[in-house]
Design a protein that fits this description.
CATH topology of the largest domain in chain A: Rossmann fold
Oligomer: homodimer
Strand content of chain A: 25-35%
CATH superfamily of the largest domain in chain A: ANL, N-terminal domain
Structural class of chain A: alpha/beta
Number of strands of chain A: 27
Number of helices of chain A: 15
Largest interface: A-B, 43 and 43 residues
Number of domains of chain A: 2
CATH class of the largest domain in chain A: Alpha Beta
């Protein structure tokens, strides 16, 4: 009834001669893309790929990435977009975990892929998806297309598995999130509404295409029959050049990328004249960045998207009208937004009971984007989907107008003397001390308070802040119960995950040895 | 995973105190509406309504109509919104056909309902859904709510049947279109995008709520958590008063209603200041009406929606930017629009082969709104859904930009000497003769041409146009092959269906006796 090849077919029926992809100097129409996808699907079938089989990709952004996704769905198989920021070991783990026997790889990841392939005896084919001839007699994406006639569309859809998206490198082994066609189809439609995409628009893949932030934009473009354009990876000058060259109307990035664009020496409002909407995800936008953005890009509408891979990913969004820097409405800038259409958001306490507006608890969600579960992990699935609700692990509250505010990861929240302390808020206060390069705030055991607030500080080169100095610095900034009760000054950098998040579990470990923490 | 009670639950979670419905002087919040719906569902269960059972309604627009829809879904049952323009006999037929044992009825249809009920021995309960006490000791909508505690949500959804929508009175017996939750859910989302509905909007139910044109607006409002307001039926003064009183931002009507509003003596732009979007369906808008509308309502965005009940109903839409009355783009005003997101539209010849842009054939469609089929009519279902495509029965073409133009019903198109003649175009020319009150153009058998163009004319009182006068009138207006070759002057009015459409099959009958027409 509905599947992810519908987008390609609909656009090819409606406007066969309209541009589907523009990648550097290479442009293809929807009719051409459909033909290439149907042939690539036949090529995959020739490699033994059948319905439900997993096919992975490790590559920078390009039109071939888009063709790959559609071709795998055309063949009735399952895409596995691999994290380009992970180590070869992490990717080898996820590749083995999902049992992919075919991996597409571009020039940038060819060497890394060799390492991954060596660790994966199950891997049978590594396909070269880049310009130029495939090295070492390897199969090539373009060669598969050239040597195969079009396959019929498998018409997989509905609850058929469409993709496995690996996540959670920060909390141990990556987990494969199982997303059916239904979940991504609904999300494409929701994203098209939220990001205001229309058929004549041109979107730019600026964030990495393996990531759900970018896939919301790509899905929205495909369902509207808009044109996809690409930069291999985010780089301000390349992004601005692509916007100028192709008349880009929408892109999705993270807030730091917006700041990088605005502050780039070659930035000029005129170069971004065609842009109508900038979507962003990963965090809320600071008043400082937004003030600068509204001044330098007054014609652009800003939209925040809050999501999680488990929801395919959209949960909430903050629309353009809430991007104001003055007046009472400016408080909404800190919000993740309002629940997406048809998506149900509740704030619950530890026992799963609803909390009133304004009170902090865990954000739990339900909606048409919900995953089936984690690949081969029934226990973790059961721990995440409880009573039909996905437990996001995000701590937050909802105001009376339905705006959702995220305050911390639930497992990083500290309960001290019966009060909730949000590590993110304390970190924000500590980080304003001029001598602090990095800070992590964690809860450590306290017989008196249950947990006590503890800060771990890495000084800036040339500074030697003391523990008492840090604690004194917080006095005017934080209520008494939120202030660090103890501070560790640490010489070496804080441990980071592959995605660049601080591994707080590792920091908490020594303090909690032999004890049980309520939330971990 | 997803069902039509999600809308109500999502809004009640996000903004329990926001207004859900405002009907006359009565306002209810989303929390109140959810409570009432859960109680009404319990009341239905008390009447023996279980999952999959059909529950019908015959009523003008009101907040109770919205509660009815949600309560039936809450109970896991199937709504049957009955056509308020049909005769009691037609409604009795559809009520028996679907096997509903419970019928909701308001004051306006109480008498008619008695007739329907008498013809339907299967009907066990007629529920009064109007203000004031129920007559004759009948059960009341409000009484069911007052006397029952809330039932748990059945959480029906996905491919579960959500509604039976009767259609097709013009072509014999009404057919019940089976729409699952999936079809309506997707349509709600598509309608929210097309009609630009946001959470703080206020929509007005001005067209009858049994009709899919209105249900697109209602569904869009519910999925966005916007406020529903009502007029019992379309009446220009009441509509303007409601828009003023409630700050209405969106409504959906038919183009003639737009004209009625603009030409009403009490029309004033100021009264419609809050309106942002007017959606319309049923036909395209004439340049004359749009010119007047743009002059008198410059702040309003116009959107055409083309649909069919079989697609739940959205197939295509014409966005605000295509509502221009001058320049080359004005030609698009005659279009039904571009395919809705993810909806596939093809133009095919009699053998089902794709036709190139600009050529007229049958419009066939596929998409997430597709019905399961016609209730208990496997043959008619098989005739309509062929190879996975819904055959709309509409003849039309698609231009190179993907705009779909409808020229005629396929069965009313005439093939004369190998050329397609569209009865609607010929009727439009004949009707400009001052002596013509009504006209129908049909194809009649011709040994020379296969079919010959024939006009049936009802003269205006006081006029006596002759056949040759009519034919001569068409000479400067139509290409030779399109002109009527014969004319019948008819004293009595043309036969009409309950929906007011001319019954051309009946007119063709005498001409084709004993012969087979290719399309019938």
């Amino acid at each position: 009834m509905y599947g992810l090849t519908d987008m390609l077919n609909a656009a090819a029926h409606a406007r066969p001669a309209a541009l589907s992809t523009v990648c550097g100097g290479r442009a293809r129409t929807w009719a051409q893309t459909r033909e290439r996808v149907a042939r690539l699907a036949a090529g995959l079938q020739g490699l033994g790929v059948g319905p439900g089989d997993r096919v992975a990709i490790l590559a920078l952004n390009s039109d071939r990435y888009s063709e790959f996704l559609s071709a795998v769905w055309w063949a009735g198989a399952v895409v596995v977009p691999m994290n380009i920021r992970w180590t070869a070991a992490e990717n080898a783990y996820s590749l083995k975990d999902c049992g992919a026997r075919v991996l597409f790889v571009d020039r940038t990841f060819a060497a890394s892929a060799a390492e991954v392939a060596a660790a994966c005896p199950i891997l049978e084919h590594v396909v070269w998806c880049d310009d130029g001839p495939a090295p070492d007699g390897r199969l090539g994406h373009d060669q598969l297309i050239a040597t195969h006639g079009p396959a019929p569309d498998s018409r997989s859809g509905g609850e058929d598995l469409a993709g496995l998206y690996y996540t959670g490198g920060t909390t141990g082994f990556p987990k494969g999130v199982e997303l059916p066609h239904r979940a991504l189809w609904f999300n494409n439609l929701i994203a098209a509404k939220i990001l205001e995409v229309e058929p004549d628009d041109v979107v730019l893949h600026a964030a990495p295409m393996f990531h759900m932030a970018d896939s919301t934009l790509g899905g929205a473009a495909s369902i509207m029959g808009a044109t996809h354009t690409y930069v291999p990876r985010f780089e301000p000058e390349a992004v601005m050049a692509a916007i100028e060259a192709h008349g880009v109307t929408q892109t999705v990035v993270v807030p730091t990328m917006i700041a990088m664009l605005l502050q780039h020496p070659a930035f000029a409002t005129e170069r971004l004249r065609s842009l109508r909407v900038i979507g962003y995800g990963g965090s809320s936008i600071s008043r400082g960045v937004l003030t600068e953005a509204l001044a330098k890009l007054p014609h652009v509408r800003f939209v925040q998207v809050y999501g999680q891979t488990e929801m395919a990913p959209i949960i909430a969004s903050l629309p353009p009208k809430d991007h104001v820097v003055e007046g009472p409405a400016a408080a909404r800038l800190a919000a993740a937004g309002r629940a997406a259409p048809g998506c149900q958001v509740r704030i619950v306490d530890g026992a799963g009971a609803d909390l009133p507006a304004g009170e902090v608890g865990e954000i739990v969600v339900r909606g048409p984007g919900m995953m089936h579960g984690y690949w081969n992990l029934p226990d973790q699935t059961a721990a995440t989907i409880r009573d039909g609700w996905v437990h996001t692990g995000d701590g937050g509250y909802q105001d009376a107008d339905g705006y959702v505010f995220i305050v911390d990861r639930v497992k990083d929240m500290i309960v001290s003397g019966g009060e909730n302390v949000f590590s993110a808020e304390v970190e924000s206060a500590v980080s304003t001390h001029p001598g602090v390069a990095q800070v992590a705030v964690i809860g450590i055991p306290s017989d008196q308070w249950g947990e006590a607030v503890h800060a771990i500080v890495v000084p800036r080169p040339g500074f030697t802040p003391s523990a008492s100095e840090i604690m004194a610095h917080c006095e005017p900034l934080l209520a008494n119960y939120k202030r660090p009760r103890s501070v560790t000054i640490r010489a070496e950098a804080l441990p980071l995950s592959g995605a660049g998040k601080i591994l707080k579990r590792e920091l908490r470990g020594p303090f909690w040895e032999g004890r049980e923490r309520n939330v971990n």
